[in-house]
Specification:
Distance between the termini of chain B: 81 Å
Number of helices of chain A: 9
CATH topology of chain A: Arp2/3 complex 21 kDa subunit ARPC3
Structural class of chain B: alpha+beta
Strand order of the largest sheet of chain B: 1-2-5-4-3-12
Number of helices of chain B: 4
Largest interface: A-B, 21 and 21 residues
Distance between the termini of chain A: 9 Å
CATH architecture of one domain in chain B: Beta Barrel
Shape of chain A: globular
CATH architecture of chain A: Orthogonal Bundle
CATH superfamily of one domain in chain B: Rod shape-determining protein MreC, domain 1
Oligomer: heterodimer
Helix content of chain A: over 70%
Strand content of chain B: 25-35%
CATH class of one domain in chain B: Mainly Beta
Number of domains of chain A: 1
Strand content of chain A: under 5%
Order of helices and strands of chain B: HHHEEEEEEEEEEEEH
Radius of gyration of chain A: 15 Å
Structural class of chain A: mainly alpha
Amino acid sequence: MTKTVHNFPVLFLLLILAQMVISNYFNFSLFVTLSILPAIVMCIPVSVSTLASMVIAFATGLSVDVMADGVIGLNALALVPVALLRRTFIRIFLGEDIINRNEDFTFRKNGIAKVSLVMFCSIVLFFGIYVIADCAGMRPAWFCTVKIAASTLVSYIVSLLAVSILTSKDRQ
Amino acid sequence: MPRKGNIYHYLINALVFIILEAGALMLLNHSGTLQNIWIMKGVHAFTGTVWGGSESVKYYFSLKSENRRLVEENDRLTSELRHYKEILEKEQEQEHSFSSSSGRYRYIPASVVKMSHNRQHNYIIVNKGSEDGVRERAGVITPDGAVGIISAVSRHYSYAIAFTNPDMAISTRIGHEGAVGTMTWDGMSARGAILNEIPCHIQAEPGDTVFTSGFSVIFPPDIPLGTIVDKNLKNGATFEIKVSLFKDFREIRYVSIVCDSDFDEIDELERR
């Protein structure tokens, strides 16, 4: 049984639910927003086209916005660029072969460092847009910078866990 | 090189991306007050830039006609100014003598059609000819200097020997009332000229302006030509003065052709 066919959609939906719970109940600080959404969008199988992954990302972001009582459109706005650049990040950090062969990446096959780097870039991109749109020009630049840095750091650690769950084929 | 199919693929991706982001922004616009203000600010800035940009483009393309209009206006104002100067001079002359005469110079605005500037014998062709009233030995000037002398005229065009030509000399004066000498091109730079025959007792300092003297039937008096840069004593008797011209001849696009209405009378007198 491969994750692409059976496990992945279920795990994907469960992690979205987890994100809704995080958004609703885990508000640590004004400077930290925890999100695993960029990581789960990056884990969409490589065989799924950019166009489809952008639509999935938009729907995912919107559902979290609606269910998590946030500003509607904020997650969707930040998540679609992650989906657009998903294949580009994979191509840059994990190589062209993985795209050509439509293979999914895993920690074991591609190495923790490279996969972490892909995740890190996607999270930085996500929070770069998220925080700027959330602050809407009303906060000083230092606040936005600190929030992007702190949120990226915390979300990066939690996202590695989410990635290990979504690439669970590794452990089978 | 990307294939045609790939280009369509990228275009569709870009289109969907723009649509989804626009949708997200619209939702954001409606759900948060801060975001609403922020987005509207961004939209206004964008539309301002676009409109400003289109205005700049429109302005750029209208520059040619604007330039032409300004040249014509400049020419008209210069003519008027010279005309009033002449009247003033005549009035001053009348105070001192009993003779009188009417306005002497007529100005014809023209565009430079062709010119050479990197030869030893340079020339200018302008778009006005005999049908416009141009005749041989008329001067070609700009507000910043004497450019050349008309040497051949066809119906619609005129050929002028440029000042950047060793054969051409202009009668000049240092200041409005200083010594008179002959100025020629230095043969090297586009802005360099030499003023000869200035007696050594004459005070001429770097920075002094050189004007046309008006002692010819070609150029009217008091056209500023350039400033004195340096002077050297020649044969112990006269100064050879280096002049930096106001006008770089390579930049000339529009000129005025100046015709002396007393030309024939003076020429006839000289021949006698």
